[in-house]
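cache lookup: miss for this entity combination. No prior model stored, computing from scratch. Input as submitted by user K.M.:
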Amino acid sequence: MSVLLIAEHNNKEVKSFTLNAITAASQIDRDLHVLLIGHNADDVAKSLSEVPLVKKVLHMDNEIYENYIAENYTSAILKHADKYSHIVCSANTFGKNLMPRIAALLDISQVSDIIKVIAPDTFLRPIYAGNAFATVKSNDDKKCITIRPTSFEAAETTGGSAEIEKVDAADKTENTKFVNREEIKSDRPELGTARIVISGGRGLQSGENFKLITDVADKLNAAIGASRAAVDAGYITNEHQVGQTGKVVVPDLYIAVGISGAIQHLAGMKESKVIVAINKDGEAPIFSVADYGLEADLFEALPQFLEELNKLNTIQK
Amino acid sequence: MKILVAVKRVIDYNVQIRVKEDGSGVVTDNVKMSTNPPDDNAIEEAVKIKEAGKASEIIAVTVGEEKAQETVRKALAVGADRGIHVKVDSILEPLAVSKILKKIVEKENPDLVFMGKQAIDDDCNQTGQMLAAHLNWPQATFASKIEVKENLLEVTREVDEGLETIEVNTPAIVTCDLRLNEPRYASLPNIMKAKKKPIEQINASDLGVDTNPRIEHIKIEEPPKRKAGIKVASVEELVQKLKNEAKVI
């Protein structure tokens, strides 16, 4: 049997987490097919077919798929489910919303948010905000799996030439209607895939003060993150939240500024390669995961940090 | 309009969990337990809708061991009218819980079902979507704003890119984000009153639902520990270490 991966895209481009999920899916079985459900998304189909790990692209094109609605995606996926041993997608808000609906209708107990493929039926997944790792074996005949994208490298995107097969659309729901999506456009790297992330917490004290973070982010070409406290306080919008219920990031460098380090925040960043914590409270839990801790007032430290960065001859991009 | 709210008893979010040495799970003896945090938001939202005159009854339901009733009792103290406790002896997978909740929905006929978007113990994020699938109802997940309109809800959802708004016809399932509202604390008089509110007990085994586990937990272990870091004395030293030691900038 083969693996069916559900692609996330915006009808123009494949979302980067799908490429990470492709890597994980190919570790389950080399015979990997991708299902692309969209409208006027031929470019996406073509780019997926060029991913060397992809053996076949099933392309379902219909105006009902202009916007992603889990109910419509589910009926589309169920049309093809019986030919596959595994149905997989990324464990971001896209896949988290979608996969349980499919799993329930197939009477499958889903395995969520895997970080390692041990065998085609056995996976490693974090539980309790990443404070424990569970090795789990699925005994269902068919498996529904979501993949933590940051735990797998992104697949190569060139050199492949998989067949693209057009497939028919499925039923449309009348009960859910897409209204709009407020996407915040930014020239900065994406939080989920950035090499450097600098995050601010409640210590910033206001939205205006996030400028101190932004200035350093500009210098380092970093993405901007935030703790839940900072988002809840309205300093910054929700898509920046890092943590158990926000985004999980694994950058080469994570700089936590004015963040105490609640369990929920650590869940989203503690796998980062190098962690820096800047906090005036020397007892803050964030220091327990930091490679480099600086006990200092962030309002003095951040401008100094920028000044020191400006003195460097070169900065890696 | 009737709202059913599903709540789960979990290890309190502030507890640093400990993994059992035999790899069978995490230590739960003498550990503080609480309502799963976003389930508090689910209850709060139902109570607000009722206070606005748009709902007539709120039923809180939990699936769990004997002590899970505490979670229902807490929901009653903040404004739910009555409770249902589906008793089980073992920890169930979300698939099994969703099948049990389907039976409760068929019995109670609510117009809306609310619950937290994710339980902070197993971090599965499945039950609401699965229940919606079993019932063939629309789902509005990760809700940070809910507007009740005639025969439909307008729900703002937190997604990776920002915020998305959808409309779902009722009956519908909504899974709640922590930013949906600010859960209230129960006042002492309301806690006393809640003791008199009814909680119906149902044995899961009487519901005719297959709750057998499909997933084997082979091993629960501690994640690899990070090696201890150092404190730096100054910003200069920090930048120098990042450049020359860690080589990340």
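stored under new cache key. Chain B has one domain: 2-224.
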